[in-house]
Amino acid sequence: MESHLFIAKCRNDWSHSDFNLTDSHILLALSGGVDSMVLFDVLNQMKDELNIKVSCAHINHHLREASDLDQNLVEKICLDHKIQLFTLALNPDHKPTGESVEAWGRRKRYTFLQEILRDIDGDWIATAHHGDDQIETMLMHLSQGAGPLGLNGIGKKQGQIIRPFLSFSKKEIYAYAKENHIAFREDETNLDLHHPRNYLRAKVVEPLKTLTPDLVSQFQTSAQLFSKHNETLDFFIQNSISQLDIDCDSDFVILDKKSLGKFPLLAQSMIIRHLAQNNEIMWRKHHWVDLELFLSKDKTGAILNLPNGAQILDNRLQLKIRIKKHIALNAIDISLGEKVDNKSFSVQIKPLETIPVKKHNSNLEFIDAKAIKGKALKIRPWIFGDRFQPLGMMGTQKMSDFLGKRKVDQFEKETQCVMTADDNIIWVCGRQISHKARIKSSTKKAVSLQFNWK
Predict the structure, then answer these.
(1) What is the Cα–Cα distance from 124 to 164, expressed in whole angstroms?
(2) What mean pLDDT is predicted for residues 58-87?
(3) For the chain, which domains are there?
């Protein structure tokens, strides 16, 4: 395709897209590969026509020896065109255990791009994904058992992320680069057929394109149809959610199992996926199978980890979804008259002028000042084997039994804290004080204990 025809196709395709580039500030993810370098050239050619400003961002993943050469090329072309460039250097040694290199790189890449977009007050993040990427993505999702939800493919617009080349083939992009003498870097790892996507590209997509010349447009049409299908499905799922008995806040969603059970098993899974804020994550076959098995077993106390770090607990007559990841708590030293704040909770110990008659709620307790006088005070998570003397009891009780008898679910148990005085539990925070710390008729001075989760 000749350059003027390529530009004309861009102009026509973009004018019918969900995104509007006119009068916008675009942050281009510039890798140094042929796709992004061609998009760089096209945006610069059309910047006066569209009245756009272009900034660039480059992420050096340091996964290849030649990655510094990619960065050098990007830096040179941005300098030549007087375009602002933001760079990020990653260290693969810092990748969390259990996370794939691809997932780690993608997460770091898009986090960086979003941060830069905010800093420059930009409108769009542009990536150079093209039609061949669409074909490969859809086939990869299909091979991984993602089902209909995975056949949306790559969207031209997702929030502030746009993909202006999604209607173009790799062949068209290479032809433009050759005609306009555009310098670019080839990623030699793309030739490694041990990588599933590379194998799929070389052994499936390329032969298929030979048989079906308009394969890119056919797959793009299919992706758009699947997207509409899934939008419709999502509409009915959200309508179903409105019929359920749900209690939710920023941390938890609690579902009545009986009302959820009126729906088919797949619909139940889709409802949970939505409520667990997993809609932006591609679920594989095993995710659906694991969740359906979890729902079918109906085993009280069972916990299932969901892809985005959320968890679901079978809690007798309810299902409890924990949206936020549990933050491990450490022991905290505290003194009389002090207030301690951390990411999880706040706690305050205050001396009182008078002896209170009664407490007002479970987060506020009153104890005899003698119970803590001269003692080392700590707030810490309870541990298995802990014992204390609940208010009104003659002897001690295991913490596990105390929480179990009060039907405290597993999620709450994991975050339950206690206050200790010289290592003896005087308060199960937010639940009950120790009998030894109670206010008695002989009490001369009292102390208030205030505990609040955030």
Answers:
(1) 11
(2) 94
(3) 3-227 (3.40.50.620), 243-322 (3.30.465.60), 332-453 (no CATH)
